[in-house]
């Protein structure tokens, strides 16, 4: 098993993203996509952010 730590930061945008990595083992290969329960991850900046309770922002 491989473990990766991913840190995403932005200073200017509201970004959505997924992780895609190529893998190979024992003669097989493919592309693995990592999402946030089927949706892209979201990273936003603090600039001009409007605070709100988590239940209203989702």
UniProtKB/TrEMBL annotation:
<protein>
    <submittedName>
        <fullName>Uncharacterized protein</fullName>
    </submittedName>
</protein>
